[in-house]
Amino acid sequence: MITNTFIFLERIGDKLEQNIWKNGIHNWDNFLKRKNVKGLSRHRKLYYDRKILNARKALYNFDSGYFLGLLPQSEMWRLYDFFKEDTVFLDIETTGLSKGDDITVFGLYDGINTKIMIKGINLDFNALKKELQKYKLVVTFNGASFDLPFIEKRYPGLIPKIPNFDVKSVTGKLGLRGGLKNIEKQLGIKRSQIVDKFYGGDALSLWRMYRATGDDYYLNLLAEYNEYDIINLKIVAEHCVKKMKENLFNIHFASNALARHPGVKNDS
Q1: Which of 106, 193, 251, 267 has the fewest CB atoms in 10 Å of its CB?
Q2: pLDDT tens across 6-43, in order?
């Protein structure tokens, strides 16, 4: 999807991007091959050519950080298909939100394997930082507002300068309401019977029970809860990316149909 995207260019928003697509320019190569693009001056077209060439060079050098500041947070999903194999799904659990609170569990999922790191047991921030350097895109749920700022405040520089596809930034557009667990239920995604009863605040309760009793039963439940968060996040993220692409292209093709058949009513 990223090579079909033009909104990273200055002064190009959703409407102008749709107009570019309507002109039969569906990707960067189409754009570069055209001498003229309707609605763009020759000077502006040449300027955009240079910007697209820079973006293409960065993309095929797997420099995802190039798109930081160019794509709005709500459009980072467009990077997912290209960087899917270099994506990490991330979720943390904390002792709370106060100044002295810390991370208790750090969960990572690369789409195949999970790594659950627990404070005081196997959470090594040097090893974690090295692990995170492998990735080109981080996927979170509400991570732009909570997880990533929390991590940066407690452990500056731990997260590499790569784009964050925050799934929550698109769920509302798709009619999916609530937190991750509520959305899972809307999509028919399952958890184990015990963990299915837990919600966000229960993670802290499990941590406190473990600390008070030393019983690994509570710790294992906490780890399982976090693991479901990151594994199911991938399912939800891919559902959202698919639906966002369908919505964009449906608008495009519907507009083209109306242009070809102006007498046809659009009831959507």
Answers
A1: 267
A2: 999 999 998 999 999 988 999 999 999 999 998 899 99
Whole-number Å distance between alpha carbons of 35 and 201: 57
One DSSP character per residue, 81-130 reads: HHHGGGEEEEEEEES-SSTT--EEEEEEE-SS-EEEEETTTT--HHHHHH
pLDDT tens figures, 206-261: 999 999 999 999 999 999 999 999 999 999 999 999 999 998 877 555 545 434 44
Residue in 74, 66, 80, 83 with CA at minimum distance from that of residue 13: 74
- According to CATH, the topology of domain 82-235 is Nucleotidyltransferase; domain 5 (3.30.420)
Tokens of 240: 């959202």
Q: Is the pTM value of this prediction over 0.70? A: yes
CB proximity list for 61: less than 8 A, separation 6 or greater: none
* Burial label, 81 (beta-carbon count in 10 A; 0-12, 13-18, 19+): middle
Tokens of 47: 């300027």
Give the DSSP letter of residue 4: G
Task: Give me the phi and psi of 200, to 5 degrees please.
Answer: -45, -50
Burial 175-185 (b: 16+ CB within 10 A, else e): ebeeebbebbe
CA distance 211 to 174: 40
Q: 97, 105, 98, 204: which is closest to 146 by C-alpha? A: 97
Question: Which architecture does CATH list for 2-61?
Answer: Orthogonal Bundle (1.10)
Distance (Å, whole) CA 154 – CA 107: 16
Sheet holding 103-109, edge to edge: 114-118, 103-109, 87-94, 137-140, 164-166
Q: Which of 195, 89, 197 is nearest to 147 (CA)?
A: 89
Residue that is written with structure tokens 């698919």 in the block: 242
